[in-house]
Design brief:
CATH topology of the largest domain: hpI Integrase, Chain A
Structural class: mainly alpha
Largest sheet: 3 strands, antiparallel
Distance between the termini: 108 Å
Strand content: 5-15%
Number of helices: 15
Radius of gyration: 30 Å
Shape: elongated
Helix content: 40-55%
CATH superfamily of the largest domain: Intergrase catalytic core
CATH architecture of the largest domain: Orthogonal Bundle
Number of domains: 3
Order of helices and strands: EEEHHHHHHHHHEEEHHHHHH
Length: about 400
């Protein structure tokens, strides 16, 4: 007569409530999920046959588990998500009053989204430590070069400083030893790999000759005045005095005063661009020098600038494109060549640079003579167009 088995009978088998349920009943009688090669458990199936409590626990802990962190106990206090919401609301108010651009506001939104993803939306700020910020830095570094990584770290620090300044937390956040911008040495090495961000004179003449309107005019402004794409996109008609060959327009980024004498080639291009400018689609854009063929401004509060995109297409067509040489390289070119005029004060003024805090003379300097500005721009023009110097 066969002997009776001594094994205990398993309780009634539990199944997933539905096929998409994120957890499964483990052989040990617990709701489970395999994460990074390890089983994580969320309570006994016998006590929770439908898995509702297990599901709630999974949703609470998933951010930590997927990031490789040990879930922390829930407690009352300001969370990472709370801080981001307060911060983005404040920045939106500044964007509404024109104190920061929508693009800057968008950059902060992207930063907050990545902070929440890396640290967990329910993490308490008082629970964060150096290890968390080290993890965040490694996540950011996976998709960014040294310059972009430094900018992102700067925005993260702005976010957490806001929490302290706004009295949302009672002490500054401690970032640990590694959450810092890349060193100057790392930046120098990265820049050396990319190469000089400028054009030589033959390349630039070829670019100008091949560019369609109004892009050609913008390129001339970049070369003549050290203008960037945002400067060109927002340039108002009232800033131009084409009869006297001058442009007077404060730099949008800093509000620093700028006056620039215009080359004959730039004046001619501006007259042509204005004569062929389409009728603006919105009445508020009537004062802009440049409009797209769709009758809209060239300036967009996005990372993908339309001017940069068109300039890149031109460089690719001419087989002159390489990483790091975009429209802003025209500003680098102007600064580099103009420094040869040996009047750096005039060069800085033309470019709209903020005076250094150590430059005491800048605090007392009320204006720079037109002749000095003309000497600098003429020096750059001779570099560009003098065939003997550019053979």
């Amino acid at each position: 007569m066969p002997s009776k088995s001594t094994r205990k009978r398993r309780p009634g088998k539990v199944s997933k409530p539905h096929p998409d349920f994120p957890l499964f009943p483990h052989a040990t009688g617990r709701w489970a999920k395999k994460i990074k090669g390890k089983f994580c458990y969320f309570g006994k199936t016998v006590d929770d046959p439908q898995g509702q409590a297990a599901l709630e626990r999974w949703l609470d802990e998933k951010d930590d588990l997927l990031a490789g962190r040990t879930p922390r106990a829930k407690a009352d206090g300001l969370t990472v998500a709370d801080l981001c919401n307060h911060f983005l609301t404040a920045k939106k108010h500044l964007a509404d009053t024109g104190e920061i651009t929508l693009r800057t506001c968008g950059d902060y939104f992207t930063t907050c989204k990545q902070v929440v993803a890396a640290l967990g939306k329910d993490r308490l700020l008082t629970d964060l430590g150096g290890g968390d910020f080290d993890h965040l830095r490694r996540v950011l570094a996976k998709t960014r070069g040294p310059v972009a990584l430094g900018n992102e770290i700067g925005r993260v620090r702005v976010l957490f400083k806001f929490g302290y300044d706004a009295s949302l937390i009672d002490r500054p956040v401690r970032y640990g030893a590694t959450f810092k911008r890349p060193t100057k040495k790392v930046l120098r090495i990265a820049r050396a790999k990319v190469g000089p961000r400028m054009f030589d004179a033959p390349e630039l003449r070829r670019i100008i000759e091949s560019a369609p309107m109004p892009l050609r005019t913008m390129i001339l402004l970049g070369t003549n005045c050290g203008y960037g794409n945002h400067d060109c996109a927002t340039l108002p008609m009232k800033a131009l005095d084409l009869d006297k060959d001058w442009l007077v327009y404060s730099r949008p980024k800093t509000g620093i005063d700028r006056r620039c004498p215009l080359w004959p080639e730039t004046v001619a291009a501006l007259r042509e661009a204005i004569a062929n400018r389409p009728t603006p689609k919105a009445a508020g854009d009537a004062g802009l020098v440049f409009l797209t063929k769709r009758r809209q401004p060239w300036g967009k509060d996005t990372k993908a600038s339309p001017i940069s995109a068109e300039f890149r297409k031109l460089l690719v067509k001419l087989n002159l494109y390489r990483r790091g040489r975009g429209f802003y390289a025209l500003r680098h070119t102007f600064a580099t060549v103009a420094s040869g005029s040996r009047d750096q004060v005039a060069v800085d003024y033309l470019m709209g640079h903020c005076p250094s805090s150590a430059d005491m003379s800048a605090r007392y300097r009320e204006r720079i003579g037109d002749d000095r500005l003309e000497d600098v721009t003429e020096y750059v023009r001779e570099w560009l167009y003098d065939s003997e110097k550019n053979k």
